């Protein structure tokens, strides 16, 4: 029996070529575009957008060229609840969330997959640059476009129903193929930034949602060196926008305490951490690492990869991941994901809760 595949079509070149490849392989393919906003004008448009009205039109035209049925699914309520509200709540708690990672987890591979399975589809195909080998997530051959980090939050069951047709080629090859297939999105720029913040002003967006909450900026000795309009407007490692002056002694955000609305700043060296604790570990490519295991970790999208020793241990509120880096990292923020790799293969992930300074002093980065 021919497998039924739902192709998630964002309106970009990657998802269009992914859908075309799946259809060409002989699967029974239906294209779907996700409408994520009740008010599309409030989201970014044009080349800087993602899941906008223009993207919907581009996705429909691509589906017509490919010759597959096409639908638009209204996921705006789920997106607002799971991504936008979570984004605001995480910043209010002093964390630094990754909304694209959250969208992949809760929308594209939870809400959409659940609906697809209920409708009789066998799998969901996307244009992510990543491979699936023997049921495990593996980095794309295009290292510069690899998206295994933002998909590291998926569980094994979700991966079982996922297809990633582009992991074996580069972005340049995808664009060339789109042109050969007559897809009008061949030269469309990649989307970037946060789609639901129309003007790109994250601090302004958070201020409108949370209100201004003035408080102190202090140094590592507790001396007040400035004021801010809300601790939610900062992230670990931030240097610009502090209003404290720059050279010759630039200062960086070291910690954020939303309870007392205090932001602590200090020298760049004070950002160094060599231990990370993560919560809610997910193991998609391995059994939980019950013994300390040498592997590699990635701490942000397209960020540096660090050799580390990783182990899962039991805590009062459930299992947690303990990561000890072989060399210190800087600017590690609570709320981000730590993704664990064996070579190019994803073993699992967790949400960063706290870090420890390389000199041994514990630094709590969330409330």
From TrEMBL:
Keywords: ATP-binding, Cytoplasm, Disulfide bond, Nucleotide-binding, RNA-binding, Transferase, tRNA processing, tRNA-binding. It is an enzyme of class 2 (transferase). Gene3D superfamilies: Adenine nucleotide alpha hydrolases-like domains, HUPs, Translation factors. Residues 145-147 are annotated as: Interaction with tRNA. It catalyses: S-sulfanyl-L-cysteinyl-[protein] + uridine(34) in tRNA + AH2 + ATP = 2-thiouridine(34) in tRNA + L-cysteinyl-[protein] + A + AMP + diphosphate + H(+). The active site is at 103 (nucleophile), 195 (cysteine persulfide intermediate). GO terms for biological process: tRNA wobble position uridine thiolation. Its EC number is 2.8.1.13. CDD domains: MnmA_TRMU-like. GO terms for molecular function: ATP binding; tRNA binding; tRNA-uridine 2-sulfurtransferase activity. Residues 274-352 form the tRNA-specific 2-thiouridylase MnmA-like C-terminal domain. It is found in: Cytoplasm. It comes from the Bacteria. GO terms for cellular component: cytoplasm. The record marks 128, 336 as: Interaction with tRNA. Residues 205-266 form the tRNA-specific 2-thiouridylase MnmA-like central domain. ATP binds at residues 8-15, 34, 127. Catalyzes the 2-thiolation of uridine at the wobble position (U34) of tRNA, leading to the formation of s(2)U34. Belongs to the MnmA/TRMU family. This is tRNA-specific 2-thiouridylase MnmA.
């Amino acid at each position: 029996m021919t497998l039924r595949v739902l192709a998630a079509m964002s309106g970009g070149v990657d998802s269009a070529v992914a859908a075309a490849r799946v259809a060409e392989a002989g699967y029974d393919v239906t294209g779907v575009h996700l409408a994520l906003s009740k008010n599309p004008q409030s989201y970014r448009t044009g080349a800087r957008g993602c899941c906008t009205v223009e993207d919907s039109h581009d996705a429909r035209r691509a589906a017509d060229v490919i010759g597959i049925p096409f639908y638009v699914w209204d996921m705006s309520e789920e997106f607002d609840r799971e991504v936008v509200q979570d984004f605001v709540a995480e910043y209010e708690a002093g964390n630094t969330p990754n909304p694209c990672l959250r969208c992949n987890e809760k929308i594209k591979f939870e809400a959409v997959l659940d609906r697809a399975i209920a409708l009789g589809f066998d799998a969901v195909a996307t244009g992510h640059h990543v491979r699936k080998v023997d049921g495990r997530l593996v980095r794309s051959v295009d290292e510069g476009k690899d998206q295994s980090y933002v998909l590291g939050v998926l569980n094994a069951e979700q991966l079982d129903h996922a297809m990633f047709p582009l992991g074996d080629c580069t972005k340049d090859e995808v664009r060339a193929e789109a042109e050969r297939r007559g897809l009008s999105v061949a030269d469309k720029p990649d989307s970037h930034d946060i789609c639901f913040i129309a003007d790109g002003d994250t601090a302004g967006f958070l201020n409108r949602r949370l209100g201004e909450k003035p408080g102190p900026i202090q140094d590592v000795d507790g001396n007040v060196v400035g004021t801010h309009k809300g601790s939610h407007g900062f992230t670990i490692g931030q240097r610009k926008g502090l209003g404290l002056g720059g050279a010759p002694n630039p200062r960086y955000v070291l910690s954020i305490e939303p309870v007392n609305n205090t932001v602590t700043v200090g020298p760049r060296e004070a950002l160094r951490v060599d231990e990370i604790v993560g919560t809610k570990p997910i193991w998609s490519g391995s059994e939980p690492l019950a013994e300390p295991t040498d592997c590699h970790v990635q701490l942000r999208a397209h960020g540096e990869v660090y050799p580390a020793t990783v182990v899962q241990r039991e805590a009062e509120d459930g299992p947690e991941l303990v990561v000890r880096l072989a060399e210190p990292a800087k600017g590690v923020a609570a709320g981000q994901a730590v993704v664990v790799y064996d070579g190019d293969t994803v073993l699992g992930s967790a949400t960063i809760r706290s870090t420890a300074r390389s000199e041994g002093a514990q630094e709590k980065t969330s409330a």
